Every structure is written in C-alpha cells, then in structure tokens.
Amino acid sequence: MVESSANRAVMYVRMSTESQDYSTDHQRAKIREYAAVRAIPIIREYVDDGKSGLDIKRRAGLLSLMKDVQSAQPDFSYILVYDISRWGRFQDIDEAAYHEHTCRRAGIEVIYCGEKFAGESGPYASLLKSMKRVMAAEYSRDLSEKVFIAQSRFTEMGFKQGGHAGYGLRRLALKACGTPRAILQYRESKVVATDRVILVWGPLDEVATVRRIYILYLHDRLSEGAIVRLLKSEQLPSEFGRPWTQHMVKTLLTNVKYCGTLAYNRRSCKLSTPRKHNTRDEWIVNTAAVDPIIDQAMFDQAQAERARRTHRYSRSELSNLLQVCYRKHGMINSQIIAADPTMPDTKMFSREFGTLPRAYDAAGLPRSPAFAAAETRKKLSVRRKELLNCVVKHAQAAGAIVERTSKPSVLSMNGSLLVRVDVEVCRNPKRGLQYWKLTTEPEIDFIIIERTNSAVLNTVDYLLVPARNLSPGTIYLKTPNLIHYSALRFSSVGAIFGEVEAGHVEAAC
C-alpha cells in the first residue's frame, strides 16, 4: 500500500561557505531524530553543500525543492530543515518568508527541527521566526564587514587577497613567521590557513614581455588588438598557455600591480549584490607591496594614452580636432592623423562620418589631392558606364548591330567596326594650357570621347575620332589644335548617330 503524501517529508540541508558550524551530517542527524520521534517517513533529501544562503539563484538543491513543491501533485507534505539560517540568510527577510509561503500555499509545511518553535504556529512562533530571519541576515552582514576589514588590513600590510597573480607575476606563500614557504602555481591554495601570500616576479621572459607590451603601446603606438596579433604570430604563450586576447593585454596595461601597487576593493559584490567597479578613493592600496615591473611614470603615461584612445568624441569634437590638425600641419590626410599623438585613430573618423573625406567636408577642410583624385576616378567610372549605355542605345536606334566585347569600354558595331567609348576630364597644369588626353590604340576604328570641363564632370562636347589612321599613343587636345577636330565635334551622342534635330536628343544622354 502506498503511503499518503500527507504523512511524508523531505529534508533540506545546507552548509554555508561563510560558516561551517553545522555540517550537513549534523543537520541530517537532528532532522532524522525529529522525524523518528513523530513517525514521519523521509522519502528524499535536497542538499546545497558549500552554498551561500544569501540568495536562491545559486542553490541547485533549494531550486529543485521549490520546483517539486510547485508541481501538480507533490508527494510530500513536510519540509524538514535544521534551523532558520539553513533555509537561508536572505538579506531581504521577506524573501525567506515568500519561499516558505509558497510551500504553505501548496499545502506543504516547513518545519525547523532545531528551533524551539518547531512545528508550532501562532503569533509567538511568527514573531520568533521573524526575529530569527533578521538575526540570520544580520549575521551575514556582520561577517561580511569583519572579512572586509581583515582583508583591507592585510592588503595594507602587503599581502594579496585571493585571485591569480597575473602574467609576469607569481604568488609566494609565507609562513606566519614571514619565512617563504613555496611559489603557488595556478589554482594552488595555501598549505596552512595562517600562511600569507605576496606577489613576486615570475619568469624573466614574462617580465620582459610585460615591458615590451608597454613599449609597443606607447612608443610604437600599436593598438591592443595589434599587440595581440603580434604576440599570436610569435606563438608566445600567455599566463594560462592560451592564445592572447585583447582583455589580457588591457589587464597588463591597466592593473596597478605592474607598477608596484597592491590594490583591494577595485570591484565588489558584497552580499550577492551586482558586481560594481569602485572609484579610486574606495580602493585599499599599498603602493610598495610589489617590486615594480613598470616604473610609475611609464604606467601613468599608458593610462593617459589609453584614456585618449578610448575617449568617446562627439562629431563637433572630431571636427575641431581635424581643423586643429590642418592648421598645425598645413594639410590633412590619414598618415598625418596617424602620426599626430594628439589625434585619435583614423578609424574613429570613418566610423562617425562614414569616410575620411566626409569627415573633412564636415570640418570644412579641403580634401587632399589624393582623395580628390580618388573621388574623380569613382565619378568617371560611373560616367563611363552611363556613356557606354547611351552609345549602345543610340547606335541601335540608328539601325546598327551592337555587341559588347571583352573590353568593358569597347563596342563592336555591325561586326566590322571596333569603337572605344571614354570620358576625359580637363587637366589644368600649373604651367601651360589646359588639355584633354586622347589615347589611341591598334585595332580600334573609332573613339567616342565625352569631354568634361572639371571634376564635377560638366559636359563640353563629344568627339568622334577616326583612330585607324592615327599612330598609337597619346594626343593632347589643347585650344590651338582643337580646330583640327572641329568637324568631329558634336553636342550630343544622338547627333553623332544622325539625330541632328534637337527634339531627337534625350536629356539623359
């Protein structure tokens, strides 16, 4: 016969990380004694061994228990716990009451076997329970404060408080009398609780790498990502034998231990509150606890440089920096920006404005000749495609059979003529007359050229030049010799193919 759930119980035991006063075995013994006297069968147990009672989210045992409590048909009616503190040291005592109330709503009673009010109800038991919850929460707060004071004092004495040493450093365990005991390897703990730990230099090749990273960052002006790529290319192992990451390099460049300072309370998450970064005045520091690998001046220089590189500039700030750089150097380009120590990375301008030329435009600066030429080349490429399509359309309208060849700018007409299509912009040399270039090449029968008068590509006219009788090379079209090409000049592409009436010439061409 299956026992009714109304007379069955489960036990919950927990051993805290803050206090080991009650081992789980001791709790089990007390709970089983309580259940035996009252003839309550215990069908299973839920355990959180070595878990803090400050919250529920990291306690797999209690989470599993609450899941079973809220199941459709729980197979138990009692939860046996040693005392209030084992249920939890919740900093919000209402949270402890909430979880207990959830059990009660499911028809399950939580019994604290080691408390005087065990199994009782009424105002007196409720008052004692509330007081015990407050005391459990206050115990954790008081213990946390005592631990913080002790660790702060040890830091001020030059002893490291937890965590790994960091690349280039090692942990040295000292006996209570101050005599060195042993170098602790990664994940090794102190042999004796009374031992203290200090930081010492690691292998000399690691120390040299730390110094080299600072030189690469400050003098060679490499970014953190570039340093990572360099170290990876050299197959240099990190502290853990893993590939280098940008976070590892950032730690080397920002942690004060590399300039000889031991700092505690840089970050904190007391009593399971969210982890936060504390301000510098909240740190507990000893400025002479470690033999410095990097001198203070270089470390401060690295912090200033990193602040400059990571500063978030507004658009107006970036524009002002470009204007100052232009006035300082008399011109502006990516090489000048990269070489100027007061300027941020060129990528920052590209991310904010889209491209460097757009950043120059926003700052009201003239573009460099190289950028101006690049922009003109882009426009010419688009214009050549438009002209090619226009020629194809008008030639076909005139009855010609047009085919595109392997060369993007050359067309075959009626299977016998090769026609090259080009757009030429006016050149304005410092000396001499302005000119347009006409380039001839073998096998080309005719060249159709659109002449433009500036970088904005305003059309001057179109030339249809018979090229077969011209020698290969470049012809410079200037004012004096343009008269020789007057019969070959047209006002539109349509006019080239016989559409002489204005009404036949489309605006798009």
Automatic annotation (TrEMBL):
One of its GO terms (molecular function) is DNA strand exchange activity. Residues 188-312 form the Recombinase domain. It comes from the Bacteria. Residues 8-158 form the Resolvase/invertase-type recombinase catalytic domain. PANTHER family: DNA RECOMBINASE-RELATED, DNA-INVERTASE FROM LAMBDOID PROPHAGE. This is Recombinase family protein.
